[in-house]
Amino acid sequence: MEVQTQTEVQQAPFVKRSALLYKLKKNKLTMVGAVILGVIILAALFAPLLTPYNPNVIDAANKFQGPSWAHWFGTDEVGRDIFTRILYGARLSLGLAIVAIVIAAIVGLMIGTVSGYFGGYIDQIIMRTMDMILAFPTLILAMALAAALGPSIQNAMIAIAFVKIPVYVRLARSETLSLRESLFVKSAQTFGIHPFRIIRKHIMPNSVSPVIIQGTLDVGDAILLIATLGFLGLGAQPPAPEWGAMISIGWKYLLDFWWYPTFPCLFLFLSAGALNLMGDGIRDVLDPRSSR
Amino acid sequence: PSDDKGDGTETADGQGGEKEILTVAMTADQGTLDPAVTMDNSAWKITYPAYERLVEYDGESTEVKPGVAKDWNVSDDGKKWTFTLNEGHKFSDGTELNAEAVKASFERTLAIENGPAEVYSVISEINVESDYVVSFELGENFPPFLSTLAANYGGIVNPKVLEHEKDGDLGQNYLATNTMGSGSYELTEWKQGEYIKLSINKEAKVQPSIPEVYFRIVADGATQRMQLEKGEIDIAEGIPTEQIESVKSMEQVELLQKPSLLVDYVYVNSSKGNEALKNPKVRQALSYGIDYESMINVVHQGYATPMRGPVPDGLWGHNPASFQYELDINKAKSLLEEAGAKDLTLTLLYSDNKTWWETEALTIQANLKEIGVDVKLNKVAYATSREMMEKGEFDLSLGVWSPDFGDPYMFMNYWYDSENLGLAGNRAFYQNEEVDKLLRQAATSNDQEEREALYYEIQDIVIEEAPYILLFQKDFVLPVSHSVKGFVYNPMLEGIYNLAEMTKQ
Amino acid sequence: MTKMIFKRLLLLVFVVFGVTLITFILSNIIPGDPASMMAGQRANQETLEQVREQLGLDQPILTQYANYMQGLLTGDLGTSIRTQKPVLDDLIIFFPATLELAILAFFIAIIIGIPLGILAAVKKNTFWDHASRIFTISGISTPVFWSGLLVIFIFYGVLGWFPANGRIEMQVNPPTHVTGLYLLDSLLSGDWVAFQSSLRHILLPAIVLSFAQLAIITRQVRASMLEVLEKEYFRTAIANGINGPYLLIKYGLRNALIPTITVIGVSFGALLGGAVVTETVFGWPGMGKYVVDSIAYLDFPAMMGFTVFISIGYVLINLIVDLSYYVLNPQIKE
Amino acid sequence: MSLAGWKGMDDMTMIIEMDQVQKYYQKGKVTIKALNDTTLSILEGDVLGLVGESGSGKSTFGKLLIGLEHPTGGEILYEGNPLWKKSKYVRRKPGELQTVFQDPQSSLDPRMTIKEIILEPLYALSKNERKQKGSYDHLIKLIKRVGLKEEYLDRYPHEFSGGQRQRIAIARALITEPSFIILDEPTSALDVSVQAQVLNLLKEIKEERGLTYLFISHNMSVIKYMCSKVAVLYKGNIVEMGETEELFNNPQHPYTEILLSSLPSLIEENEQKMKGFAETAQSKTENSCIFYEKCPKRTEKCLVGPELELRGKDHMVACHY
Amino acid sequence: MLEIKNLHVNFQTFRGTIEALKNINLTVDEKEVVGIVGESGSGKSITALSILNLLEKNADIIDGEISYRGENLLTLSKKEIQTIRGKKIAMVFQEPMTALHPTMKVGEQLSEVIRRHRVVSKKEAKQLMINALKDVHIHNPEYVAKQYPFELSGGMRQRIVIALAMAAPPDLLIADEPTTALDVTIQHEILQLMKELNEKKGTSILFITHDLGVVSEVCDRTIVMYAGEVIESGVTKEVLYAPQHPYTKALIEALPDGKDANEPLKAIHGEVPNLMERPAGCAFASRCQHVMEVCKMKQPHLTHWQNQHDVACWLERDG
Ligand SMILES: Nc1ncnc2c1ncn2[C@@H]1O[C@H](COP(=O)(O)OP(=O)(O)OP(=O)(O)O)[C@@H](O)[C@H]1O
Ligand SMILES: Nc1ncnc2c1ncn2[C@@H]1O[C@H](COP(=O)(O)OP(=O)(O)OP(=O)(O)O)[C@@H](O)[C@H]1O
Ligand SMILES: [Mg+2]
Ligand SMILES: [Mg+2]
Ligand code: NI
């Protein structure tokens, strides 16, 4: 065949990307999830317009007010408006948790696929290290990180990402072990493709599904973890509004002032559910077989 | 075994209704129970009824009455205390409690060199004068000595404890989970994390009326509440003040409310913190900046009493005429202005050790904002907060304090003596030579009236200097079932039950 | 295979060594002085020094570590600073309770989660799928303290069907100690009363604890099942007349199980150390509370002992998980 | 054993030399000899046909060459250099050696579009080469030649018929312009017309660039049409090999004879002509001829296995008769 | 026995609708062996899959009827069709590697299918399984039964897939290119086996292949498909030796059998039409050597030509 110098064919053609978008749009549940999450995020961004209260200013005279027109979701133990705190808290809780989990999932996916693909010593070293991370009490790790890096929200995020990594590593690795033996990976090997490209192009896309599922489920957990770290002085310091903290302080009041822990819980549920819907949707879209 | 029919209310671990059993719900399990080791007030509720002391607190007062010792006297220089013992007190295995046993017990405590040994470090020698007379030689005059003997670590341990000695631990390991005393009760079963069971000590001089007492661990306040309502427990220790209202409406439950000696205060770091805090005017301004009334309402739903001077109401040495700061924003502002402290930003250290601290911190933050002081909350892990307190790495810090023995020494000398900087007690890092001098004088006099006068004098000074913001005295609030009678609250023995005198119907 | 197991067990030593070393270093980074926690509320400088010396905290950190490791080799995990008791004794008391709770919770999560996941996959985007999603997501996103308290309120407070607290009725003698797991022990010794009592006590906390795992298992099974359902061999099986549970389990689940088992392995380990909240809410005398208290107290020996326990547990569980890969997919080579 | 006949032509370079190559699979106590003491060479420009019973080790042969399995024993040289060094595969210049797998479906990444799949091997090449060979025109030309269409490029493998997938695999093997291609049943899933198209293409390319093929197939007419030399495998052993003409016209080994006669063809109606295996199977012994079990011509003598020996020009047979 | 009437199948993709099958009509009578040949991608497998209702999820059967012994398979409930699958109608899939459960031993897979369709004990099933493996000429069946699919050669897998389909044995066997991976000797044996099944047990066979040699060997009747349509059908001998449609003719000419190795094979030039935009007229028009004006305008329908021989072509033919 004669050779022509021509522009190289684009690897990620426009068609493919628009196909993904098309599929995402057609997936109703994904859209439901996206809308719920979008509303929460928008509400968080425009919180000052939506509520007349300041999330941090206390109003002792109005503590433990039940839901009413003035306070939709009631007030807390120092009289702050819970609705307001939920909206402002979304910025912190949801944002931090999602970023932490995304970091953990991406790093975990990379480490896990590499570990599973190469096997041998690399695998042993990586996996035993993961065993170690898993075996640590999260609290010790967080406290130590706080001490070493200094307490800040970013560090809380790093701490959470760090302790969450091993799960993703193990998940990605388990899939990789099977994929490594599949003929299409083997055939890529026979072409002489660089192992990292094989991992990136063949292993990762095919092992990402359980990672996505786990990731969307982990966000709720991460929000609660942020709260735990907050209590230990790592992470958001009071009075910053934060869902996890609202829930873990508020739960003691469940029997008397049910609205206090319940509404933050409800928002946690809504966001976790929305993320999960989106996660399932993304899984579907990435699977070329489910074309509708 | 109880019946397991599953027919509703009574099937749950129901022994609350039974006459022979008293059930107390406590929020956490105990650590070691060795009186020579533990400094933890909550362990006392188990050990206090299991051991006897030379002297005991008298009813509701913080004064002492005879215990094992029927009388005592002190030498003029205050350095020699001699006790004459009652005969017939026996340990649970029948061993007699005599002067030898008292000597052995205290020597053991001193040898173990733990917290309690420090309290008794003034003791230089213990002598058995006769079978029932024992004397203590002190290294220096220490008037509160008598009071310390009524505390938990004054509990007299059976000398046979040494039979359980392992690796030279003087029986510490054994006593950690067992009792060997002459009190009315002895520990008969301890299921870690679940409950501790006390049964009557057959050899005890006073035979109580309730045969078995269970201390159940129910960490969750709401659960305690439900259990109390169902009569499954008789006394609920762990119901937070926010939930107390609902207990009031329970028919079969009585709510005890007494002022306690637990003081809630803010350390204002007077020498190691923010420069501005070195100026007494700034500290006064802070004290003027707090809305005490609303603080009590917000933080404890009103279950607390405002302070008057550092010595709490209920302890001798308390001066009802002391000055107490009140909210006065203008005054505070002008004081700050005088001191030239503008745009003051202070950190407020606290941890999650006390559940109400968060609310308290928020309230202080809001209050001080009114007088133009910016407060940055710094919440850390408890252990970290202790280290920071020891080192003085804070501007303001939340804290609570309660006395180990019934003497104003517990407040005055600990809080204000510059020898005790840091965790030891002077957590405001307050240094005043005159105060030091007066404090030491008060600590070495044996004349209570003279001491009281000295403490009054010192109180006036330190109230003026304001190294601590004195917030309130927390009330002791305890829901007790109507079926339980005879409980007497002694502020020195908070969380401890006079089980020997209590009855159940 | 045996060789591999052996190798992994050897590496266990390495892991334990590493974990303890890092815990040791980390816990020394954490500001706070265990002596200050132990010496009592108002310890002065002198007492602190004394206590430090007693605990050996005045020695260089490496010496401390060496001493610790020396003890470890002889099975001595040191003495807890907080409880003043040998750490091993404490853990032996608390571990079985946590283990029992975790195992039952897992049992529940698996029994419900796997069929639910299969159902959701087979009936994708139908009522069943959505119902299972709402159920599982609410399980994972309602924190245990919330759901736990609610469950106690309903089943103890209102209905009175179950006890709120503890492991067994105080008047019921626990079964003869064999494994430390009451349910198992009472069955072994034929102690029906103890069995009933402990079952009634464990059920609520186990169910609440299983919620989070349930969600993870269900969602993972669903996702992997969807993948398998599209496979050609699955279609072949249908064409050959295979149907019903056999088809779904042997042809479907079996090949969907690897990621599920992986998350189960990881979270089972996490459960052992992380059931703190459940244990607190239900007054369950387990290890979780012990550890959190120890950490708050900077009780190094207790923290270390716990870490050693957990790391051994993790390595063993993950070893089993890894071995299961070879069974589930014989093509995977060692 | 002598390789004289095969090594004779000094003027031609040897691409592959195999010496006593074995591949055993161990499963528990049983050893499967997928390939047994195989010795042969492939000359540049050859099209070596590999035929034989199903399960006789043909695919294994190919796998050894591309590094998917490592030999249990023996040596394989590629252009004079050993392919395997201490059970580590030494990769040749990327893109030089390509394969079309027997199982096209599972050799295609289900999450890649056809375009990505076909271009994938280029990523082993230098950037320049990739630009050249991956140009759009080049790609389109190639897929047209294997009978695919431009609009297929954005589809995923599962959207194709078996034959279409096979053609994708072929296109993928051709994109790097390799010099040696292992084709494992490349046309078995193709209909005759496309088969013709693909065979023509393979032939053309070979002519154009002097390629070498290892052509595994069971379709004797295809082998006859495509190959210059043929080796017949039976249970992991080469029982006969030689020039195609010679072998087809003058089969020496009874198994080859059976193979050739059982060809279903609609040109000649040959049902009756077909030669069969022995009526009764005889279990073979350790040393016996590999075909002893089913050989219609077996005798006592065959209980001691024959060696591969030269019969006529370049024609080797392992049979006593 | 099996009658497909007017079957239309579309695939929905986000690029558009692919008309994969258009107006398929075919019948298989009792005890008959019918072959389907045709270009790759012409819809042979899709036809087979529609019979058992096993099409991919993005497929729509928009029209038509598939009746098996009078029952319309397309309207059956999931449960009802499942009783037919494997037992009454079984199928050999085209790609043997992916058609087998990758992590189950092949013997186990086979015995389970046997147990599904015959009332036998586990032990008997195992024996039957060994016999079935022997039937498809697996040497050493006891051993192979314990292997996983990835440990087998392509041909062995294919034979296992065949054994699976014949386990019942079914009344109708749909074999989608069942012998592609087999060497000629074994292919011959397998074909014999199928013939035997057909003759002794009366199993009808729908045999999909592109190997015209095989068709001539086993099929009673042959159907030729092109671009999702049937373009010629009739008794095998007639279709192969007297092909009427230009496409059939071209197919036969493309065979390499006996061709000179130096001459290129006669492939059909041009390409299959895009199934998303079918041409108005005959689908083969663009590649046909005898194309006429009418071919481009109007689609020819399958019309009877002579004794059972139907053709869809506008060309004049005698008879
Ligand atoms: N899931 C799908 N989505 C879109 N198009 C599909 C799908 N499955 C098959 N097709 C298309 O349908 C057409 C018919 O496919 P089919 O598998 O029936 O071909 P075939 O006649 O069996 O060919 P071969 O002989 O190559 O196996 C092909 O053009 C194919 O691309
Ligand atoms: N991974 C493996 N483990 C065990 N045995 C194997 C493995 N791979 C192949 N075999 C065995 O090796 C032998 C040769 O297999 P191979 O795939 O080379 O056959 P083949 O000649 O290509 O046959 P076909 O024409 O059927 O594809 C077979 O008996 C097979 O069972
Ligand atoms: Mg093969
Ligand atoms: Mg097909
Ligand atoms: Ni030789």
UniProtKB/TrEMBL annotation, chain A:
The keyword Transmembrane applies. Keywords: Cell membrane, Membrane, Transmembrane, Transmembrane helix, Transport. It is found in: Cell membrane. The chain crosses the membrane at residues 29-50, 94-120, 132-150, 257-279. Pfam families: BPD_transp_1, OppC_N. Residues 90-279 form the ABC transmembrane type-1 domain. CDD domains: TM_PBP2 (cd06261). Belongs to the binding-protein-dependent transport system permease family. This is Peptide/nickel transport system permease protein. It comes from Cytobacillus purgationiresistens. The lineage of its organism: Bacteria, Bacillati, Bacillota, Bacilli, Bacillales.
TrEMBL record, chain C:
Belongs to the binding-protein-dependent transport system permease family. It comes from the Bacteria. Residues 95-325 form the ABC transmembrane type-1 domain. It comes from Cytobacillus purgationiresistens. PROSITE patterns: ABC_TM1. It is a multi-pass membrane protein. The lineage of its organism: Bacteria, Bacillati, Bacillota, Bacilli, Bacillales. This is Peptide/nickel transport system permease protein. It is found in: Cell membrane. SUPFAM superfamilies: MetI-like. The chain crosses the membrane at residues 9-30, 101-122, 134-162, 198-217, 256-282, 302-328. Keywords: Cell membrane, Membrane, Transmembrane, Transmembrane helix, Transport. Pfam families: BPD_transp_1, BPD_transp_1_N. Its main location: membrane. Gene3D superfamilies: MetI-like. Signal peptide: none annotated.
From TrEMBL, chain D:
Keywords: ATP-binding, Nucleotide-binding, Transport. It comes from the Bacteria. Residues 16-260 form the ABC transporter domain. One of its GO terms (molecular function) is ATP binding. PROSITE patterns: ABC_TRANSPORTER_1 (PS00211), ABC_TRANSPORTER_2 (PS50893). The keyword Transport applies. The keyword Cell cycle does not apply. Gene3D superfamilies: P-loop containing nucleotide triphosphate hydrolases (3.40.50.300). NCBIfam families: oligo_HPY. Belongs to the ABC transporter superfamily. This is Peptide/nickel transport system ATP-binding protein/oligopeptide transport system ATP-binding protein. It comes from Cytobacillus purgationiresistens.
TrEMBL record, chain E:
It holds the Pfam family oligo_HPY. Keywords: ATP-binding, Cell membrane, Membrane, Nucleotide-binding, Transport. It is a peripheral membrane protein. This is Peptide/nickel transport system ATP-binding protein. InterPro entries: AAA+_ATPase, ABC_Ni/Peptide_Import, ABC_transporter-like_ATP-bd, ABC_transporter-like_CS, Oligopep_ABC_C, P-loop_NTPase. Residues 2-252 form the ABC transporter domain. It is found in: Cell membrane. It comes from Cytobacillus purgationiresistens. Belongs to the ABC transporter superfamily.
